[in-house]
Every structure is written in C-alpha cells, then in structure tokens.
Amino acid sequence: MLPQRLKCWLGKRGWTLHPHQVDMLRHAAEPALLLVAPTGGGKTLAGFLPTLSELTEAPEDGLHTLYVSPLKALAADIKRNLSTPIAEAGLPIRVEDRTGDTPATAKRRQRADPPHILLTTPESLALLLSYEDAPRIFRGLRRVIVDEIHALAESKRGDQLMLALARLQALCPGLRRVGLSATVEDPAAIGRFLTAHPTPCRIVTADPGPDPDIAMLPLPTPPPWAGGGGRHAIPQVLEAIRAHKTTLIFHNTRAQAEIFFHHLWLANDDGLPIGIHHGSLAREQRQRVEAAMVDGTLRAIVCTGSLDLGIDWGDVDLVIQIGAPKNVKRLVQRIGRANHRYNAPSKARLVPANRFEVVECQAALAAVRDHDLDGDPRGPGPRDVLCQHILIVACSGPFDAGALFSEITRAGPYADLTRAAFDACLEFCATGGYALRAYDRWQRLQQRPDGQWQLRDPRAARQIRMNIGTIQDTDTLKVRLKNNRGGRPLGEVEEAFAATLTPGDTFLIGGQTVRYEGLREMVVEVTRREGRKPKIATFMGTKFATSTQLSARILRMFDSGDWSALPDHTADWLRLQQELSTLPRADRLLIESFPHDGRAHTCIYGFAGRNAMQTLGLLITARMEAMGLAPMGFVASDYAVLIWGLDPLTDPGPLFDGTDLRASFETWLAGNAVMKRTFKASAVIAGLIDRQSPGQRKNGRQATFSSDILYDTLRKYDPDHLLLQITREEARRGLVDFGRIEEMIARTKGRFDHRTLPRLTPLAAPLLLEVGKVPVQGAAQERLLAEEAARLLSSAGMAP
Amino acid sequence: MNDFVFPFHGARLAARGSGALWWAEAGLLVVSDLHLGKSARMARRAGALLPPYDSRDTLARLEAELDATGARRVLCLGDSFDDLKAARGLEADMRDWLLRLSAGRDWIWIEGNHDPGPVDLPGTHLAALQEGALSFRHIATAVRGEISGHYHPKLRLPLRGSTLSRPCFLVDADRIILPAFGTYTGGLCTTDPALDGLMLAEALAIVTGHSAQAVPMPRGRSTPRQRHHA
After folding, report:
1. Domains A4-205 and A213-369 in one fold
2. How far is B153 from chain A (nearest CA, A)?
3. From the CA of A208, how many Å to the nearest CA of chain B?
4. What residues contact A691, with CB distance under 8 A and at least 6 apart?
5. Do B51 and A717 touch (CB under 8 A)?
6. Are the Cβ atoms of B57 and A786 closer than 8 angstroms?
7. Which of B215, B217, B221, B222 to mutate to test the interface with A (most CBs of A within 10 A)?
8. Does residue B32 sit at the A interface (CB-CB below 8 Å)?
C-alpha cells in the first residue's frame, strides 16, 4: 500500500503502522473519511500518509493537499514534523504554512506557485477563497485534512470552514475530505458535519487504548466552601510534580491559572522549573513556554484551554485538573494529554476547588469510567457566518444566486437551509435588509443585467477581507513593561479591567506582579513589582457551564442516596441539607426562601449551568421587581441562583410559568448588556460593522460606532430585522443560554417544592461566598452613579 | 429627567440628561452635532449599510425635548447635517418633520465644519451668535463665556467593577462643550489631549442619561489649561 521509499523509511525508524493508520490508507479514495482516535494515536501521520504516498508515486506540480487546523501554532508544528520524513525518505514534496503570521511576500509567492501541501487555518483559507485567482490557486487540489475537527465542529469557525469546503468542492469536484477527531460522543454527527452533503462519511475508529488511571488527588483537608482557586491543594500538587516527569495543571479560567501559579511559585521551595501558559499572554511568552516544554526542561505547566488542542508533548505523564471539569468530553481530552507512552493508561488527578465541586468531580469520574461523553447538538449553521460567506464569494467575483445556494446546502451545517432564508441573507448583504429601503442607490451587492451578483464598488473587497473571521475579540489592551523604547509585551487584559486601574494598583500577569503606571496610546504600561499583594487580573476567557449530562448525573447521585464515593465531609453536608430542607431533584424545581442578614433570600436550584442560571437570575429579578418584592441583587453558579431583596417570596408559582417566562424573555431582551454583546458579535461577523483593531481605536476620533446604539435603533424601528433574528437565535446558547432554561422548564414541568425556612440552608450557604454578585439593573445604575458622583465631588473638594 | 442646573456668566443654564442645554430665561434650547443624514453618508462614502433610522430617531428625541421644555427658540450648534449632500438629500418626510418642528419657533443654524454653507431650510444661518455675555459657536475658541460643540465629549467612569461610557457636557468657568445630540454620533473621550488641554483643572463633566449627573472631568495626561489673568 505504501511506496517503497516510505516503507524503507518506516523500517529504518523501526516503526510499524497502527491499524487505524493502515485503515486510513486503505480507504484513502473515500470522498469523506473521519478518523476518531485518542490523543497521541498518530492521528496526523494517519491523515498525511495517503498524501505522502500519492505524491511519491505520482509527483505533480501544484497544490495536492490542504491541511486546516484551528491553531496557527499547530500548522507550524506540523510543518516541522512532516519535514523529517520528507527529508529522510527523500520525497519530492514541498510543504509550507500560511497563517496570519506568514510574511506578505511569502503569501504572494504561495498564490503564484502553491506548494504540494499547504498548512493553514479556517480564516486564512477564507481569505484565499476571496481572491479572484482562487480557482487557479486551488486547481488540482485532491485532499483536504481538517485537524481537531471535534473542536471546530462546536464553533462558528467550523461553520465557516465547511462553507469554504463547499466552495472548494465546486472548484475541485473530485476533492476528498479527511477529518481528524479526538474521542467524541457522536462521531456520526461529526461525519455529517464534514462530508459534502449528502455523500456518506466513512468513519475509522482507532483503538481507544486502556482506560485512564483517574482519581481525586488525595488531600488531608476538605476544600473551602466556595471559590475556584484550588490553593488549598498546593503542597500536594507540588508533591505530585516532584513524583512525575512533566505535569500539566489545567484551570478553567485564566485568572485562576494566574493566581494558582503565583501561589505555587511562592511555595516552590525546591525551585522546580514551572511555567504558565494561557491565551492572554503575549505570543513571545507562550512560545518560550512551548519551546521549553518541547525541550523537556519544564517539570510542570499551569495552563488553561490554550493547551487543550495542539502539539503532543511526549513526556507528559500526569494531568491535574483544578476545579470541576464542567464537561466530561473536555476532561477526557485533557486526560489524553498525559500520553507519554501510547497504549499505556493516561494518569489524571482531579482537585475540586470547593465543596460543591467535590460532588461534580465525583460525577465526572463516574462518567469517564462509563465512557458517557456529553455534547449538545449544535443546531443549524448560523446565518451571520453565512452572510460573511456571501460577501467573501462576492469578493472573488460575480456569482449566480441559485448556484451559490445549492453549493451552500452541500455544507453539512447548512444542508437544511431554505431558499427563503438564503435570500434574506443575500438581501442583507446587498441592501442591509431594512424595512425602510434607504440604500437602493448605494447597495453593497448589485445584480447585473445578466442576473449575476457583484460588488457595486470593487473597492469594498478590501474592507470585507479585513473583517474575515468569526473569532470574537473582546476589547483587550496590550500590557507592556514601561521603559524608554516600547518595552517588552507581557500580554493582554480586558479593557474593562484596565479602566478600573489607577496608577499604583498591582495585578498579576504571566505569573508576575506588576504595577500599573498608566495608559499610553491604548497600551497598559506597567513596572515590575515583586512581592506585593496583587489585585487580580480579570480576563474574559471562556466561562464554561457545567454540561447538561453532568448536571443530570449530579441530580441522579442526590436522588440515589448512595454517597459512598463521596468523602465524609461532603456526604455529611448533603445529609444536613436533606435534614433541614431537601435535596434538589431532576423532575422538580427546589426553591428555598429564608431570611439572612436582614434580607429576604430566595435560592433556586435550576442545575442549568452558570450562563443559564445567570440569565434566570436576571429574568426572575425583573419579574420580582414587577411584583413589588424589591429584589436588590443575585449571584449565580452552575447549579443555583440566589436572590436577595427587601420582601420575601411567598408564592413562586407565577414566577415560573413557562409561557410567562418566555414572554418576559422577549421583553427583557430590550436592555440587556449580554444581548448587546451577542448582537455586536453577530453584527461584526455578518459585516454590518467593522472589526475594531486597536490601531483604529487609537486614532478613530469619532468613527467608532457604538453597536449598542445600532441595536437599540433596530429594536425600535425594525424589530424583525435579520440581525435581531440572529441575535435571538444566538441567545438560545452561549452567554444567555436560554435553551437550558427551557430544558429546565421541560424537565420540571411546573412542579416545584417551595421550602420556607428560618435560616440559610447548607446547600445555599456557599453561594453567599461566590464572586460575581449582580446588582439588579434599572434604577440601580443611576443610584450608583449618583453615589459615585457625590463621592468624587466631595473628595475633589467640591460641593455636590 | 433631572437637569443639572448651574450658573454661567450671569445665566442659569440646565444641562439635560438628553444632551440638550436649556436656558429657561431666554426660552432657548441648544443642541449640537445632530449629524442628520449620517447613515446615508456612510453608505455613500464607506459602503456601510447601517440601520437607516438615525435621522428620525434624532428628530424624535429633539421633538421630545421641545415638548418637555416648551422652547420658543432652538439653536443648533453646527454639524446639524453630516454634510451638505446629506442636508440636500434628507428624505421628504424628515424634511417635513423639521419644518413642522420649526413652525412658530425661532430657529438658528450655526455653521459647523461638516455643514459650512447655508442650508435651504427655514431659520437663521449664522457663523456664531452672541447673546448677552454668552457666545455660541461650533468649535471652541479662546473667548470666555463660550458654548460650543464639535468634540462630542464622552466619559468613561469605573463603577464598582463595570465601566460606564456615556456622552457628557464639559463645563468650566470659561466654557461649555456640549455632547453630540445625533443618534449615531460617537464621542471623544475626555482624556483625549484635544479635550484634556482645553479645560481648566476644576472642570466638571455632566453625564447624560436618565438624569444629568456632574462629576469631576476624568483627565488624561495633558496639563490642564491655565487661566491667564490679564
């Protein structure tokens, strides 16, 4: 099956192919082929073997294989890995990568003379497809390999990629697609995502290897009642690092990783080499840590999801997860990082950061043992991505609407798109799609006499290309060490966080404490400040919500009454709750009302995940305000929302009527900041407003548009506009996550247990210690502003 | 809506939460930088197809201010139109609306850098207006007792973990700078050197919103303007 030269090379290396690698060669002619294999199973080689083999047997000029990965770093790494067999076996193959980091001259040369294998990202591919010479660049393309497709399939980047593949397929009808996936709960769904609809996708499944060695990290003391830091476990974590070669320590948020790293370092008396890696660090910083890992000079890396994907570091023999994993599938993938030997069990230890997470970690352990992975079906491809795709196609040249429609419906996520929905997107791209037809003279896309659509002004292509991509940038500011010449970049912080800093404040970034000196041309300037107690850097990052399946497992565990797997301190806590109130159940909603600290409290155990519980808090407090209960604030966790106010809740019935809840959701859309952020993201993707680069903001005197105002204006004058439809659809998942509230309503069917109690209950107590308390909006912000104004005026010596 | 009322060169002025300035004794309502026709100009110039409802929203808010104050005189402090083409190209229903608002009122258009020439709408067209001790023009000069627009000041204020970003008036002993009244008109941060160097050290920022609130003007790194005593 393999050409002689490759066989020899493998033989020289003493390598034999894994069965799934042989299968990938055997089925290389399939139009769509998906490999599901655990981390470290030689996935990438399996993907590339057919390419190497075909190009060795029948060398030809031009692009043969396109490799797409979600990470730029992965493209560079694969290039290095492929160059070894190509050089050693003397194969006539040229490999190049093309990402946002590739110099412009190299990019131009690649367009004129494409390599045999091009390694790229979804965004760079979309950009390539927007050029008029795309048909020439991709002429002769045979295979496309999509790496980490399980991650792409969960995001708009994947939807954009599948639209790009539909376009490529139209340019190269014989194109074969290969997907490389980690272990997932529903490989067939990934297959449907990958294939050119309706061609079936063949799935090759690698031996999943032995079950992982996974358990809780034994600790002498119970975890604290609330919080997410895991600081209590630092001595045992250090001990584990000492006992292993290389340890990855995963955290759920960047802020937690920073704090943990800070304290780990303070306790690191042996001076073990330990690094930190997360998405807010400067590229140079991350690359240094990555290089040190490859060299094997680091004993541990404190990290976040930034190391979920990507390069396999062979020497990792322990993974520690700090905080509840929130999602079983991600936990399994993280565990797979400890793959120092293929076919040896991966070793992982969990550290619950607080008392409730003990329960969640235990449920996750059971799920891993049962191979019960979680995943939410994603629904049809989002229309903001489709709008961007239509604009990209228009950049590459005139198109026929009917032909483009049928091309798009061959992309898995858009297989069920209706012509009417497509036409609405086209209309949006052409005229803005407003009820008031104001732009007939200034359309962005115009229909020519022959019926083809094209850009009215070809110069618009430049702007469309600059806005390609679906990754949401939060507004972040660069952080630099202050010195005479620019200073070394350390990373980024959120603009909102930077706005709270005053000179002299200290915060953590990249494991060091720095002092805020000032803001200069949208760069946060800092100096080094050792040993001071830092304020905490807040990063947007992603706040994961506990998955539906994991929440259901926790409720089942409550219900079973069998808590033998739990440590005594946690089981006792649950028993006390059962005695004083009751435990939450899957088929009923538990609502507790009790006085505490002079205020009426209500705790709702919805188990719908952090984002949905936050939304529920906003909704319920709005309704409580309407009922005159004077709510003052709330705090949400993955399993409950705790509300406090002036008057006690006596009858929760009217609050939880499903129809009413849905209706008030619609009203509530009006002023919510999360909705506005959701709108902004879609407005940028769909091409209504430009993506803002920091440079633009610096000199953008007045051109910076407040997307909030556009949102308010549309709601007022054009409530059925496409972008508002998209915003509502997006609100079903993501930060608003209304879909999970609906799931909670369906699960409890209006049955609830309302317990009125004399005091705070054991299960509600930790919520009081949670951070992220939300004041009830409305009059609240004006009141805060008035207070702040009075304070500022008097401290400035002026009478308010 | 609560106003912030303050004395200024012998007049009692009210900064309104809407961003308009109300001089009750003179029956005069001042608004600045309406930028009517902005979305149309954006489409024409940059190809951005923003929701084309900004002019009607601006006029609706202006009408509400006229109703609330009962103003007999209206002064638009320049950049009333995004450019002259926008003034000429204003949709017929928007033009009719403006005519209706101006009926029975004394309407003064001050010229701005976006709309320098005369506009073919009723009212008086002036480069600047002197009214007692107060002078009104589009861009601030060194004159004391001056009320201007042009810079669209806005402020950013940290409020217990979140940041408030809103248009604001800037007021010191010598001058007042109005926020933009136009719906789509963005703002320039008070910390920008252009504004920072223009205002005295004790300048106030009056935040627009449900009610007008005064705070010390958030400053940047420039040296505040010094008063030169003659």
Report:
1. yes
2. 10
3. 46
4. A466, A467, A469, A473, A684
5. yes
6. no
7. B215
8. no
Tell me the domains of chain B and their CATH numbers.
Answer: 4-216 (3.60.21)
B148 interfaces chain A, CB cutoff of 8 Å: no
Contact between chains at A785 and B156 (C-beta distance less than 8 A): no
B-chain residue closest to A700, CA distance = B188
Which residues in chain A are closer than 8 Å to B46, comparing Cβ atoms? 463
Least-confidence region, from A240-254, A493-507, A718-732 = A493-507
The 10s digit of each residue's pLDDT in A491-540 is 877 766 776 677 777 888 877 788 888 777 667 888 887 666 676 655 54
Please compute the mean of the pLDDT values over residues B48-55 and round it to a whole number: 93
Mean pLDDT within A349-361: 93
**What pLDDT does residue A483 have?**
75
Indicate the CATH number of A4-205 among 3.40.50.1970, 3.40.50.300, 1.25.40.80, 2.40.10.10. Answer: 3.40.50.300
Measured between CA atoms, the residue of chain B closest to residue A718 is B51
Q: Which helix (H) or strand (E) holds A368?
A: helix A355-369
A117-137 residues labelled b (16+ CB within 10 A) or e (exposed):
bbbbbbbbbbbbbbbeebeeb
Interface of B with A in 72-111 (CB under 8 A): 91
Determine the Cα–Cα distance for residues A599 and A91; give it in Å rounded to an integer. 75
Residues in A touching B49 (Cβ below 8 Å): 431-432, 434, 439, 442, 444, 688
DSSP state of A280: T
Which of A454, A520, A689, A713 would best serve as a mutation to test chain B binding (most B beta carbons within 10 A)?
Answer: A713
For the domain A213-369, what is the CATH superfamily, name and number?
P-loop containing nucleotide triphosphate hydrolases (3.40.50.300)
Mean pLDDT of B214-227: 85
Distance from CA of B162 to the nearest CA of A (A): 7
Q: Which residues have CB under 8 Å from B149's CB, separation 6+?
A: B32, B33, B77, B78, B79, B112, B138, B139, B177, B178, B180
What's the pLDDT at A694? 44
Cβ burial of A170 (10 Å; 0-12, 13-18, 19+) is middle
How far apart CA A436 and CA A121 sit, in angstroms, is 39
Q: Is the pLDDT of residue A701 over 50?
A: no
Q: Give the containing element (helix H, strand E) for A249.
A: strand A246-250
Q: How confident is the model at residue A699 (pLDDT cuts 50, 70, 90)?
A: very low
What ipTM does the predicted assembly reach? 0.89
How distant is the alpha carbon of residue B28 from its chain centre?
Answer: 14
Percent of chain A with pLDDT over 70: 89
Measured between beta carbons, the chain A residues lying within 8 angstroms of B189 are none
Name the one residue in this structure whose structure tokens are 């948020």.
Answer: A253
A440: exposed, middle or buried (Cβ count in 10 Å: 0-12, 13-18, 19+) = exposed
- Residue A589: both structure tokens together: 């909603």
> Is there a contact between A326 and A611 (Cβ–Cβ < 8 Å)?
no
Q: Which residues from A are below 8 Å from B184, CB to CB?
A: 705, 709
**pLDDT tens digits, residue range A419-428?**
999 999 999 9
Per-domain residue ranges for chain A? 4-205, 213-369, 383-466, 476-528, 587-775
Q: Specify the higher pLDDT residue, A490 or A660.
A: A490
Per the CB < 8 Å rule, is A499 touching B210?
Answer: no
Q: Could you tell me if B208 lies within 8 Å of chain A, comparing CB atoms?
A: no
Query: Do the Cβ atoms of B159 and A785 come within 8 Å?
Result: yes
CA-to-CA distance for A215 and A349, rounded, in angstroms? 5
Residue B147, amino acid: I
Q: Shortest CB distance from A439 goes to which of B43, B156, B159?
A: B43
Closest CB to B186 among A456, A496, A703 = A703
Q: Structure tokens of A29?
A: 């002619």
